[in-house]
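Ops channel
N.P.: pipeline sanity check, posting one input/output pair.
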């Protein structure tokens, strides 16, 4: 039976796109495996041969270089490596894997390296093991060349593409310059994974959870991506394209209509304010929205500034970046979150030990406090930049009061040191904690006494509260921001922060849904921080909802005992707002809200 041409996945970032697909076969950490069609087997073997030739040339070049610098003897290893690469038995084995298993060259080489590794782990003695490791080294070079070849081909092009990958990682989301990525579609990845967070923040439509996606695509195949409804249509026909273009036009009209309200403050008709700030990852993000229409930056994820480099950025480099962001904010507050690496956010030049539970491991503030020099350099850079705007410091992954006290000690010390060195530093720099680890809820009053503000990182808080990994598709149904435990935790935070007279906001992705944002306002939060392309949507919803109604939404959500009940409350909010809508250009909201009919399945 013909396979359906429309695949249904999980909508991760809204928007529509139509274009040729580019399959990202590789990310730096993942060696891709795919099935090679019969007619392409010979081409795959030729790809392997080409990569072996290139690696041989590269080894010859390195041999010459090392011979010139430190003598022939030291350079001999490269000659051994060249012989290993051209060993006939090994080459025949690799060709056999490609032919018999119909796998791509990268997968065949990876299997070979794995075999070397297994042999190696059985061997006794360091020198024998080192020798065995040498066997796989030239093959790693071949693997690198196989994987980079395709990357270079696409990177040297200019057209826009829909990226397709097995997994939605931060590396996939940053694979090309963002204006060349029309959409992203992947087999796995959760709505709250960092790759998804990036796609949303870049405003790139994204659909995940499309099983067997890569096997069903061909490089360059035309596809339609519907990031509102989580649909991917393969090889659309003219009629589908026409429908798509009509929807796109409606969507653009809606964005335009929303933009007309964007300059107005984010307050309810009776004057209750909800601060609406942006989550950003780089200075470039500031070009994607009008900062004068925001209340500032509520979350600068600084780790992405680190991820774009080959080594730790120096104090001066960081200083210049932070200064630039502060200046661009023109006096609006900017919350700089200190480095939050670990888990899926890895720096190529900072090796975190392999952990069996990385989400519960060495990440965020834990790394910064164990390597205080990292934190010191970052704080020095930030404090030096503080005179150029309204800086706030936000600490990720706080799990105890003592951690915050330790940061205060380092902070005061850095400030003193800068003062002694003659630097000017702004007098009042608020320090806040991200509430992401459930332990903070049970020491909340003590914690609030130590900070100037709190920001709830619901992406992590939900995963830790519900013991459901934010990146694991097998527990995606359990990772549920509508869970009454999450709603209750949010209610507690809003109440406690208010009682302590400290500002509170939510910067996790759930705040980007306007019905949820209204609930948060009703609970007593002072602000939400969201992907820049959602700012207008939220402000518009706030401007149409009286404050007593937001309190009623919060009360209703807090009274529910099931996720379904909470979702129903929020859906009613959307329907109510939709019904109040008079401007037909703004009615596209209904589709985003999931009221649209499921499209009928199109078959080949
Ligand atoms: C969060 O956990 O909600 C958050 C905003 O931080 P990140 O998504 O970067 O972990
Ligand atoms: Mg987090």
């Amino acid at each position: 039976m013909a396979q359906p041409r429309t695949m249904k996945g999980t909508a991760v970032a809204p928007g529509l796109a139509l274009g040729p697909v580019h399959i990202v076969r590789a990310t730096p950490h993942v060696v891709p495996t795919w099935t090679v069609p019969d007619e392409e087997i010979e081409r795959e073997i030729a790809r392997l041969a080409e990569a072996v030739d290139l690696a041989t040339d590269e080894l010859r070049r390195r041999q010459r270089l090392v011979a010139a610098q430190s003598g022939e003897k030291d350079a001999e290893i490269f000659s051994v490596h060249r012989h290993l690469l051209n060993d006939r038995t090994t080459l025949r084995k690799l060709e056999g894997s490609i032919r018999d298993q119909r796998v791509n060259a990268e997968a065949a080489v990876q299997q070979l390296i794995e075999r070397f590794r297994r042999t190696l782990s059985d061997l006794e003695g360091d020198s024998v093991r080192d020798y065995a490791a040498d066997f796989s080294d030239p093959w790693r070079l071949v693997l690198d060349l196989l994987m980079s070849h395709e990357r270079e081909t696409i990177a040297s092009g200019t057209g826009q593409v829909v990226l397709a990958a097995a997994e939605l990682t931060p590396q996939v989301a940053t694979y090309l310059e963002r204006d060349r990525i029309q959409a992203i579609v992947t087999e796995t990845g959760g709505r709250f994974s960092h790759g998804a967070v990036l796609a949303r923040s870049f405003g790139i439509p994204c659909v995940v959870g499309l099983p067997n996606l890569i096997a069903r695509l061909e490089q360059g195949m035309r596809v339609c991506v519907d990031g509102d409804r989580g649909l991917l249509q393969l090889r659309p026909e003219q009629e589908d394209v026409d429908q798509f273009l009509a929807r796109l036009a409606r969507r653009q009209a809606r964005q335009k209509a929303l933009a007309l309200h964007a300059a107005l403050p984010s307050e309810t008709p009776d004057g209750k304010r909800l601060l609406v700030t942006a989550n950003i990852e780089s200075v470039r993000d500031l070009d994607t929205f009008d900062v004068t229409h925001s209340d500032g930056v509520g979350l600068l994820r600084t780790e992405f500034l680190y991820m774009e480099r080959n080594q730790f950025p120096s104090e001066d480099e960081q200083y210049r970046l932070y200064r630039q962001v502060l200046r661009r904010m023109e006096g609006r507050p900017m919350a700089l979150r200190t480095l939050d690496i670990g888990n899926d956010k890895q720096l190529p030049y900072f090796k975190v030990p392999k952990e069996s539970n990385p989400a519960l491991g060495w990440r965020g503030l834990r790394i910064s406090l164990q390597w205080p020099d990292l934190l010191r350099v970052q704080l020095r850079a930030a404090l030096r930049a503080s005179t150029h705007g309204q800086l706030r410091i936000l600490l990720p992954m706080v799990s105890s009061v003592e951690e915050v006290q330790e940061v205060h000690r380092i902070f005061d010390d850095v400030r003193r040191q800068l003062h002694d060195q003659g630097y000017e530093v702004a007098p009042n720099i608020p320090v806040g904690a991200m509430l992401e680890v459930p332990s903070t809820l049970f020491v909340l009053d003590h914690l609030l006494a130590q900070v100037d503000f709190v920001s709830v990182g619901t992406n992590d808080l939900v995963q830790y509260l519900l013991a459901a990994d934010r990146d694991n598709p097998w527990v995606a149904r359990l990772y549920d921001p509508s869970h009454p435990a999450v709603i209750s935790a949010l209610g507690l935070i809003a109440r406690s922060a208010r009682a302590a007279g400290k500002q509170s906001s939510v910067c996790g992705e759930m705040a980007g849904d306007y019905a949820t944002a209204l609930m948060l306002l009703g609970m007593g939060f002072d602000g939400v921080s969201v992907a820049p392309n959602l700012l207008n949507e939220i402000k518009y919803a706030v401007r149409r909802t009286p404050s007593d109604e937001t309190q009623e939404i919060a009360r209703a959500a807090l009274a529910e005992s099931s996720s379904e009940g909470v979702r129903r409350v929020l859906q009613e909010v959307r329907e109510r707002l939709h019904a109040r809508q008079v401007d037909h250009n703004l009615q596209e909201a209904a589709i985003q809200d999931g009221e649209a009919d499921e499209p009928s399945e199109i078959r080949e």
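N.P.: looks fine end to end. The pocket of magnesium ion (ligand 2) is lined by residues 396, 436, 457, 459-460 (CB under 6 Å).
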